[in-house]
Design goal:
Layout (H helix, E strand, L loop, with lengths): L1 E2 L7 H13 L7 E4 L6 E6 L5 E5 L6 H17 L20
Antiparallel strand pairs: 1-4, 2-3, 3-4
Length: 99
C-alpha cells in the first residue's frame, strides 16, 4: 500500500518507524504530485529530512483516485494495533521462505 525510502538496520527500528506512523495517522497530510517521467499521480507524506516519510507504492491514473488511496491508507494505518516492539538491537529476522 505504501513504501518508505528509509533503510532500517534492525527489525525493531523498522517496527518503531511503522508505529510512529500508526500513532500519528490522523495527522498525516499528503502532497499529491504527478509522477516524474511517467503517467499518473502519487501521494507523498513529506518527512523531516529531504526524503519522504512514506509514499504510495504505485501511481494512480486519476488525481481523485490517488486522493482516495491516501485516505484509505490513513484509515487502515489507524486501525493497526500498537505493537510490542522488540529490542532496538535485534537483528532483522528472515522468514523460512527466504532461506
Amino acid at each position: 500500500m505504501a513504501i518508505t525510502p528509509a533503510a532500517y538496520e534492525t527489525a525493531g527500528e523498522a517496527e518503531r518507524g511503522f508505529d510512529g506512523l500508526r500513532a500519528g495517522a490522523d495527522t498525516l497530510v499528503a502532497r499529491i504530485t504527478h509522477v516524474r517521467d511517467g503517467i499518473g499521480w502519487i501521494w507523498v507524506v513529506p518527512g523531516s529530512r529531504t526524503l519522504p516519510e512514506v509514499r504510495s507504492s504505485r501511481a494512480y491514473e486519476r488525481y481523485a483516485t490517488c486522493q482516495n488511496a491516501f485516505r484509505r491508507f490513513v484509515v487502515l494505518l489507524a486501525k493497526q494495533p500498537a505493537l510490542e516492539l522488540p529490542d532496538r538491537k535485534a537483528p532483522l529476522r528472515r522468514s523460512d521462505a527466504a532461506r
